[in-house]
Amino acid sequence: MEQYIIKGGNPLVGEVEIGGAKNAALGILAASVMTSEPVVIENLPDVRDTAVLIQAMESVGTRVERIDRHTVRINASGIDNYTIDDGYIKKIRASYYMLGALLGRFNQANVALPGGCNIGSRPIDQHLKGFRALGVKVEVSRGMICAGCDNLVGSHIYMDVVTVGATINVMLAATLAAGKTIIENAAKEPHVVDVANFLNSMGANIKGAGTDVIRIKGVEKLHGTTYSIIPDQIEAGTFMFAAAITKGDVMIKNVIPKHLESISAKLIEIGCQIEEFDDCLRVVATKRLSSTHVKTLPYPGFPTDMQPQIATTLALSEGTSIVTESIFENRFKYVGELQRMGANIKVEGNTAIIEGVDSFSGAEISAPDLRAGAALVLAALVAEGITIIDDIIYIERGYEDFPEKLSLLGAVIEKVDSERDIQKFKLKVG
Ligand code: EPZ
């Protein structure tokens, strides 16, 4: 089983290049099957989630040619079936975007029902509500969502909760529905906007993405396009906190600073210096950071995907901090692992009360989910001694070359998969 092994203590210094946004890429890959013409997608992150979704697309007859590590050419003219089985959904929930994409183009789709996951129950009632509003007959039986209609008809849909997934999924189907669709209480995340921009580059007519009201005029068909995915807001935020927690000085390149405003604001509040440029920003931390209160919210609020990273950083800050998780009901599973490294955190419901400690000590820990795993790497970077992290498959779902990018910044981290490698690492680092 592959693990990360990390020797803590080095401040991160230097430059890091941020990749394409995973959560935009998943919606965009699914949307690419909505035309029979070739589509080229650039700045695609090479992570496990995108690899699995590409396999799901190929399973229904899509041809995907990898032009280089971050560019693919997609040809969906040969799609010959409309069923995405649970093998793909079990690996990544976002395979459910194929529902909206296949419904939009073919008026039918069968996709396995995604279960809950490590961060919560994650229902999809709003997705199904949106499809039904567009005239789709949706049945859920034996773990499969079977959806179909004679033709999609635009509708006025009000989301009961702000949901990224349902906003994107319904937007996909509505793009090719007859007439107008309005999605109210829509999610405003940068990746929602990127999927809308991608669809518009294919000839869709979508206005208002990035606000809470998205207006879609259905079109007859979509054409091919070449499109480059926006930088990953959460990968960038993770490296910003890595610089902060290690008291480093890191230039984070290929970002959109506007997407990072809530993250930058919190880092400045707890004592970091941040310098913004057009497509990069510099994070410097020279002294012990201070405490704060933070509550995760839909964009433009502080992202839930950054909650483990800020909580880990605050666990070493001066004073008492409060972190409230308002999006998912089970996103503190990493706290037990941090406590084994010396953190003083108490979780009550959806709130973590954090008493800053002076230091962490290295330990053998496991990544409970994607972003929690990344946060545990941050903890290990600053812990005294050596930390070994298990279940790194979660981390590699969303971070491309994470150990390599951290090593280039001065971190002492390697991916190992045997006791022998561990011993070699320990001998090397002393
Ligand atoms: C997306 O998940 C992201 N995943 C998540 O990132 C991110 O944490 C989340 O949005 C919130 O920003 C992808 O984009 C692939 P939601 P999604 O629908 O779409 C409830 C990562 O780390 N809800 O916005 O599944 C839901 O239970 C991942 O990259 C319903 O009640 O999230 C949650 O409480 C983790 N009914 C809230 O809405 C529904 O039909 C937000 O969920 C759908 C959602």
Task: Give me some keywords for this one.
25% strand, 4-stranded mixed beta sheet, binds ligand EPZ, UDP-n-acetylglucosamine1-carboxyvinyl-transferase, Chain, alpha/beta, globular, 32% helix, 430 residues, 14 helices
What this model shows, in words?
It is built from 14 helices and 24 strands. Helices cover 32% and strands 25% of the residues. The mean pLDDT is 97. α1 (22-31) runs parallel beside α2 and α1 (22-31) packs parallel to α4. A four-stranded mixed β-sheet has the order 22-23-1-24, with helices on both faces. It has a four-stranded mixed β-sheet with strand order 2-15-17-16. The chain folds into two domains: 3-19 and 231-429, Enolpyruvate transferase domain (UDP-n-acetylglucosamine1-carboxyvinyl-transferase, Chain); 22-228, UDP-n-acetylglucosamine1-carboxyvinyl-transferase, Chain, CATH 3.65.10. The chain has 430 residues and is of the alpha/beta class. The structure holds ligand EPZ. Ligand EPZ is lined by residues 23, 26, 94, 120, 122-127, 161, 163-166, 187, 304-305, 327-328, 370-371, 398.
CATH superfamily of the largest domain: Enolpyruvate transferase domain
Largest sheet: 4 strands, mixed
- Mean pLDDT equals 97
Strands side by side in the biggest sheet: 22-23-1-24
**CATH-defined topology of the largest domain:** UDP-n-acetylglucosamine1-carboxyvinyl-transferase, Chain
Stretches where pLDDT is under 50 for at least 5 consecutive residues are none
